[in-house]
Amino acid sequence: MRTKLLILGAAVSLLAASPVCATSVHKVTSQGLADVKVYVTDSEGQADCVIYVETSKGLADGNAKWYYEDSEGSADVRIYFTDSEGLADKKVFFTTSKGRARCDVDWKSYRK
Questions:
Q1: What is residue 18's DSSP assignment?
Q2: Has residue 5 been placed in a domain?
Q3: What beta strand segments (E) does the chain contain?
Q4: Domain that includes residue 84, residue range
Q5: If DSSP codes are grouped into helix, strand and coil, which group holds residue 35?
Q6: 104/60 Cα distance (integer angstroms)
Q7: pLDDT tens digit at each of 112 positions of the chain
Q8: How many domains is the chain partitioned into structurally?
């Protein structure tokens, strides 16, 4: 019984210790340079993600809180903001409330 508790405790501590990192985003001006194309919608209900933009990378955490990176090489993902909803890979809504930010999209998986 004690061995099972030790294994369970170790598994829980490994899951709890996994860090949640900020998503650092670099805005590109060409679709060809982008990892993902994003359309900004005016409706939170139509968005795949509700994004909050942090001013400091240290304050941002998870996929719903972005930090804009000036350096393309330091960014997790390169994003092109398109004016066409049909050309977009994902739709986002920007919020001014940190508590309303939510996103299940793994932006880093789009990195080419």
A1: -
A2: no
A3: 22-27, 36-40, 49-54, 62-68, 77-82, 90-94
A4: 21-104
A5: coil
A6: 15
A7: 555 544 555 554 444 433 456 689 999 999 999 999 999 999 999 999 999 999 988 877 889 999 999 999 999 999 999 999 999 999 999 999 999 999 999 999 998 8
A8: 1
SS3 of residue 67 by DSSP? strand
pLDDT of residue 79: 97
The answer to whether position 6 is within a domain reads no
| Nearest partner of 35 among 43, 46, 26, judged by Cα | 26
pLDDT at 78: 97
67 assigned to some structural domain = yes
Looking at residue 89, its pLDDT comes to: 97
Q: Are 103 and 49 in contact (CB under 8 A)?
A: yes
Task: Judge whether 59 lies within some domain.
Answer: yes
* Contact (Cβ atoms closer than 8 angstroms) between residue 32 and residue 82: no
